Amino acid sequence: MYKFFFKRLLDILFSLFGIVVFAIPMLIIAIAVKVDSKGPAIFKTERVGKKCKSFKFYKFRSMRTDAPKDCAPRLLKSEDYITKVGAFLRKTSLDELPQLFCILKGDMSIIGPRPAGWSEEDLIEARNRYGANDVTHGLTGLAQISGRD
Q1: At a CB cut-off of 8 Å and minimum separation 6, what does 10 contact?
Q2: Which of 30, 32, 69, 106 is the most exposed place for a label (fewest CB within 10 A)?
Q3: pLDDT reading at 77 higher than 90
């Protein structure tokens, strides 16, 4: 019952609370992103969700618009494309705030494995082997609290 009701209820409550508390900071961040570089303030991409179903994933844009699309950060020399505001957002993890809307929609959870990009085939396969794609992916998880950025 926890897995199907209480966890989802807590996700809804925490994401709504976060959206209300961070509404003004998110507006300020969106303006800063727009002032710093051309393009939209929100970066949207497709990510691998529960049961390997695709979902829209949102972040504040931290890279220039000419950066390669849908490329895993570990496969890209991203420092060549990061904007000044983007560097700050990444360092403070503020670029992750729009994911509160993914949680509210039910595509993500507060806690769970981070969603992989479709270009990270080796990671998707490993997660399939260990059952990590059988749960709702999250804003934070074991990798983040263990010091992995």
Answers
A1: 110
A2: 69
A3: no
